[in-house]
Amino acid sequence: MIEISNVTKEYKTGNEKVPILKGVDLSISEGEFVCIIGPSGSGKTTLLHLLGGLDIPTSGNIQLQGSELSSKSEKQRTLIRRREIGFVFQNYQLLPTLTVYENIVFPIHADGKKVSPKEVETLLEAVDLKGYEKRFPHELSGGQQQRVAIARALIHNPKILLADEPTGNLDRQRSGDILDLLATFHYKRKQTIVMVTHDMFAAGYADRIILFKDGVIEAEVKREDDDYAKFLTRFMA
Ligand SMILES: Nc1ncnc2c1ncn2[C@@H]1O[C@H](COP(=O)(O)OP(=O)(O)O)[C@@H](O)[C@H]1O
Ligand SMILES: [Mg+2]
Measured from the CB, is residue 197 less than 6 Å from ligand 1? Predict the structure, then answer.
């Protein structure tokens, strides 16, 4: 479903090129729930943006469902993102002039499709924002905005959900609710999920945990591996 091979990314600051991703190889199967953990600044968000076609790698390849992302035009990548991918941004990126309802249905409208009121209802309920439809983002707490961002990422029933610290601003109870929601969608709708988090409680939901460090994959563990529990507790600290 997702094949990342030898991907590098560097940013230019002034005359200097700063390498951020230093050769990432990762293969994610259809229907897998993968979690990426690792220190702040290690390049997790950068990698997720590349997967979502929001940016292109400096070198290397990223294939989504068998086709190379970086060979596509910006327009084609936008279409793929609109139809196949749900993206939860680390900083939410809600549209400030739109209400909660309008933000959530935005991807459907952008694609010229019809909104299913039932689907909106289901998601509003799932993220516990019923009654908040007419509010604007600035009238919400950080956690509420994050939950709008999650509903928006799921509204078009994407094949792939890319979520950047989707529980970063939620308390344990809310995190649990949101993770249950993601797990349910993953299970019932066979969604492939790539979630970045530094919360080991959240990581515990994934089939596979990937430890990212300084622009490369340092280690990974699958739920069925013998050292899974050890891996988890090692990074709990
Ligand atoms: N657009 C950009 N231009 C220059 N540097 C960037 C840009 N985006 C991210 N970086 C740098 O890349 C590094 C990795 O960032 P990021 O991918 O956000 O890490 P993480 O999500 O793991 O915290 C950081 O040092 C950050 O400052
Ligand atoms: Mg980040």
Answer: no
